[in-house]
Amino acid sequence: MMALGCVVATAWVAGQATTQPATDAGATTKALAPDQLIHNILSSGSDSDQTLPSQVGPLPHDATSGAAAVAPGAPAVTVLREGTYLIDRTGRLTHSADGQQAEFTFDADSQTLRDPPVIILPNLKLMQMESAVGGSNRDLRFRVTGMVTEYRSRNYILLEKVVVVPDVTQQF
C-alpha cells in the first residue's frame, strides 16, 4: 500500500491489523504526527517555483480601437481588467468581422458611450442567445451579466445570466 510516497507494511496479529512503516536497510524512520507530516509535505516546495508576475501599469488599448478601427480618427479605448464583472448591461449579439466569434455589442449608455464589443466565451448561455436570435424575426436585445477576461488586448466575457429585453411599445 502506497501513501504519500511512504511504503507501509501491514501485519495481522491476533485478528487485528497493525501498520508500521517499512524501513530500508540502513535508513532510520521517525514517526511524525499527522499535522507535522502535512506541514513538511506542504513546505517542501523548491526554490525554483515562481509565480507569474501580475500585470501592473497602465491598461492596454483595445486591439480593435484607435488606428485599428474602421472609422478614421476613432478614439483608442482601454480594455477592462480581468475579473471585472459586468452587471445587467444591454446590447446585441453580433459576430466578428471574420464571422468566427460571437461578440456582445453594448448599447450606448450615458456613462461611457465608448465600450468596444467583447467576445463571448462559448457556453450554454451563448447557445441560448443564438437559439433566441435564430427563432426570432426581429433584432433582439439582451441584458447580460458576466465576468470579463483579458487576452491579447481584447476583452472576453463569460456569461452567467442572459435575459431577452422585451420590446416596449407605448400607446397613447
Give a structural overview.
- There is one protein chain.
- Helices cover 12% and strands 34% of the residues.
- The chain is mainly β.
- The chain has a domain at 80-165: OB fold (Dihydrolipoamide Acetyltransferase, E2P) (Beta Barrel), CATH 2.40.50.
- The strands form 2 sheets. It has a 5-stranded mixed beta barrel. It has a 3-stranded antiparallel sheet with strand order 1-2-3, with no helix packed on it.
- The radius of gyration is 29 Å and the shape is elongated.
- The model is unreliable at 1-13 (pLDDT under 50).
SSE series = EEEHEEEHEE
How is the CATH topology of the domain at 80-165 named?
OB fold (Dihydrolipoamide Acetyltransferase, E2P)
SSE-based structural type? mainly beta
| Stretches with pLDDT under 50, minimum 5 residues | 1-13
How many E strands? 8
Helicity, as a percent range: 10-25%
CATH architecture of the domain at 80-165: Beta Barrel
- Which homologous superfamily in CATH is the superfamily of the domain at 80-165? Nucleic acid-binding proteins
Main beta sheet strand tally, sense and closure: 5 strands, mixed, barrel
The number of helical elements comes to 2
Walk across the major sheet and give the strand order. Answer: 4-5-6-8-7
Query: Class of the domain at 80-165 in CATH?
Result: Mainly Beta
Mean pLDDT: 75
- What general form does the structure show? elongated
Name the beta content range.
25-35%
Brief synopsis:
With 172 residues, this protein is mainly beta.
